[in-house]
Design brief:
heterodimer; A: 8-stranded mixed β-sheet; 10% strand; B: 8-stranded mixed β-sheet; 56% helix; elongated
């Protein structure tokens, strides 16, 4: 069912399994809001189920339901095993073991400080400094660094055969790649040394005088003193941090590491994904897998299907008028005709989107080794079964059913017992006029 | 209640990927078309705003996009320079390059400095009256609270100095709901809605800025009502597909693909409605919820911005 340059399902599966057999670390990266976390979890779960071994997924900020699906509720940094029972409930007997861990940012920073500080007293002073919380939260792409640092630590420990790490939503996806280098730069910079020269002697330092004149007026000297105190403490950790950041950097470039680029096929995320792929290439990092998520089914860009949809729309009235009674039910012909026209119009709307997606995918396809496509998942990912189904699609299982009709239970939940139309979002009172552009943009909202 | 565009300063935020920049750009266009001198400012200079307006890079000093419409990207170093020059009147202009770099370094560590330079710039534009409306394409949900809370927080850290002095007038602008508001953007999906609900709470608890409105972006059209759906179910079942294929001289596979596509449209729409319902239950009492329909025809660029602007115009 893959429209462009399709690998057969077994070819894709072979390539993917080769990749995962050769690699120990998979770093999921990509723009925000594309479903990275879910895809990372799905790949890890499926690898555990099909390939065996001990697989760990490290996730940064999962939706509560996904956390529940992985048994992660309320846990910090500790890895927990997803019980084999959960796999059996999902209808598989896993070959390996799946573990899941969250990255707790402040816990991770605290343990870094404890590790790298020269002694306990200094560690205590750093942790107690009012500027520390703030700094650990944000400087040098702190979140990105911590995710990479955790990955390194877990890889070093050697307890797992495969690590799949999700990455935090950065304002710029490339920050992730630069985070360890920035950490090194931060500690090596002249500025840090400058700031940590005792405050008094700085006042007579000609080179820095203009800066302090400005800073004093703008910020006040007290803040500068606080900062200097903090940086003096922080610098005691320099050697530990720098060598660690370099090691993290080496791991990212190691032959055992591959990147999995996740994106949707919308214009802006796809553009960001393309930049990310280029950045990986220019840094000689291995991009092993591209996952296009939330993609519309390929039928939508099949011209033969489109012809049928058009015919359905143009002969809607005739079809409705000649509909045999057992198909028409109690409905009026006009209503049936409008249903058929809606079906045709909706098809042509979604066809546009699907075609655009296909084009963006072929552009992206030039930059990677294995492409996998995941369709829209109805409802939410609420259990391991759903993760394994997504994983199955990535593995290239032939029978991916993109459009299961929603289960009756789900429908009831979505509509809280009312009809679907009533549950549709309605506007604020007093603003419910018909939209004049609604035909053009598709019908707008279900308040009518 | 005061109209959205009658305010002076709007911060547009939401989870990454929901279309913050699109909504900010569309609000800017709408305002400029109503004759308001409008500035749209991208807080994170990623180039998304220039991409949306198809106008190329949007520098700190601004680029004219259309009549009454200027676009710019934040640059904290340039903002500092402007601040020192115009406000602080610090007499070290010759050395400002390295000073600004050093300052940038300190600002990375010191809480709220970068944020205050960002928020300060747009507040400054409001105060100086260069524009009738300033719209900030602000940080995503993860960082926007830090951005908006900076002027309050800075008072605790900076006890003397010009920055402290400057926060007072900024706070006057920020906490006045008739002047300043947050536009919280989401899509009808699980995580964006959850983050929007959390953020609405945090904005109220931790920042001086009031929620002005919610925008549900990319809302799909509703295909069927109940009676239509019953008719559709019969047509999409095996007997219906067979009959239609026969009448259209088409393959049953093609007809069921068409039906499956309609089913998918209904499913996506219904999943989204459930999430928006949750949003309305949790937040919508506090601020109006505007709908922007999903754009099938164009995903980005000036044409898309125009369509979103028109939808927002009809909703306002």
């Amino acid at each position: 069912m893959q429209p462009t340059r399709a690998l057969t399902a077994s070819e894709r599966q072979r390539q993917l399994e080769q990749l995962l057999a050769a690699k120990e670390v998979v770093v999921a990266c990509g723009p925000g809001g594309v479903g990275k976390t879910t895809v990372a979890a799905a790949v890890a779960a499926t690898a555990a189920a099909r390939l065996g071994g001990r697989v760990l997924v490290v996730t940064v900020d999962p939706a509560r339901r996904l956390a529940d699906a992985l048994g992660l509720s309320g846990l910090g940094n500790a890895a927990t095993r997803v019980p084999a029972e959960a796999f059996r409930e999902a209808g598989t007997s896993p070959k390996g073991e799946l573990y899941a861990a969250m990255v707790d940012m402040s816990e991770s920073w605290d343990s870094l400080v404890r590790r790298h500080a020269p002694d306990e007293r200094t560690a205590g002073q750093i942790l107690a400094n009012p500027l520390y919380r703030n700094i650990s939260g944000r400087f040098a792409q702190g979140h990105d660094y911590i995710a990479m640092e955790r990955l390194y630590e877990l890889h070093e420990a050697g307890d797992y055969d495969l690590l799949v790490v999700d990455t935090p939503p950065s304002s710029n996806a490339l920050d992730l790649l630069d985070a360890p280098s920035r950490m090194t730069e931060f500690f090596s910079s002249r500025l840090l040394r400058w700031l940590t020269v005792p405050y008094r002697s700085r006042l007579v330092n000609l080179a820095s005088r203009p800066f302090y004149q400005v800073a004093d007026r703008v910020l006040g000297s007290q803040l500068l003193q606080d900062l200097a105190d903090f940086f003096i403490l922080f610098q005691t950790m320099r050697d530990g941090f720098v060598s660690r950041a370099e090691a993290v950097n080496r791991l990212l470039g190691d032959v055992r590491t591959t990147f999995m680029l996740v994106t949707t096929l919308e214009a802006v995320p796809a553009r960001e994904a393309r930049e990310m792929a280029q950045a990986l290439a220019s840094r000689h990092l291995h991009l092993g897998l591209l996952v296009c998520n939330k993609v519309l089914p390929p039928d939508l860009s099949d011209p033969a299907v489109a012809t049928v949809a058009d015919a359905l729309g143009s002969s809607a009235d005739d079809l409705a008028a000649s509909l045999p009674p057992e198909l028409r039910g109690r409905e009026r012909a006009a209503l049936v005709a409008s249903v058929l026209s809606e079906v045709a119009e909706s098809f042509s709307n979604f066809r546009l989107v699907a075609n655009r997606e296909a084009e963006l995918r072929s552009e992206l396809a030039l930059t990677h080794e294995v492409t996998a496509t995941v369709g829209y998942q109805p409802g939410n990912v609420t259990d391991l079964g759903a993760l394994l189904r997504i994983g199955g699609t990535i593995w290239g299982d032939a029978a991916s059913t993109p459009v299961p009709s929603p289960a009756p239970g789900h429908r009831d939940e979505a509509t809280t017992g009312k009809t679907p139309r009533q549950a549709a979002p309605s506007r604020q009172a007093g603003t419910s006029r018909q939209s004049s552009t609604s035909r053009q943009t598709g019908r707008s909202h279900g308040h009518r | 209640m005061i109209g959205l565009l009658e305010r002076r300063l709007l911060f547009v935020t939401g989870k990454g990927g929901v279309g913050k920049t699109t909504v900010a750009a569309a609000l800017g266009l709408l305002a400029s078309e109503q004759g308001l001198r409008t500035l749209v400012c991208e807080a994170e200079p990623k180039g998304d705003l220039g991409f949306a307006y198809e106008c190329g890079p949007t520098p700190f000093h601004g680029r004219q996009v259309a009549k009454n419409l200027t676009a710019m990207s934040m640059d904290t170093e340039a903002s500092l320079r402007e601040y020192l020059h115009h406000v602080a009147k610090v007499p070290v202009m010759g050395r400002i390059g390295p000073v600004a770099r050093a300052f940038d370094f300190v600002a990375t560590a010191a809480p709220g400095i970068k944020e205050i330079l960002t928020v300060g710039k747009v507040c400054y534009e409001v105060r100086e009256g260069h524009y009738d409306l300033v719209i900030m394409d602000a940080a995503a949900t993860g960082h926007v609270v830090g951005q908006l809370a900076a002027p309050t927080g800075i008072n605790e850290l900076v006890r003397v100095g010009l920055v402290r002095h400057q926060t007072e007038w900024m706070l006057d602008i920020l906490r006045d709901p008739t002047q300043t508001g947050v536009v919280l953007v989401t899509t009808p999906e699980e995580m964006p809605v959850s983050e929007a609900i959390d953020l609405a709470d945090r904005l109220a608890a931790e920042t001086p800025v009031h929620l002005a409105c919610l925008v549900a972006n990319r809302v799909l059209p509703e295909l069927f009502g109940t009676a239509e759906e019953a008719a559709f179910d019969r047509l999409a079942a095996a007997a219906g597909v067979g009959w239609l294929a026969d009448r259209l001289h088409a393959g049953e596979d093609e007809v069921s693909s068409v039906m499956a596509a309609a089913r998918l449209a209904v499913t996506i729409r219904r999943d989204g409605s459930a999430h928006l319902e949750r949003l309305r239950r949790c937040v919508a009492g506090e601020a109006p919820l505007l709908y922007v329909p999903y754009l099938f025809s164009r995903a980005y660029g000036m044409r898309a911005i125009r369509q979103v602007a028109r939808s927002l115009g009809e909703e306002l």
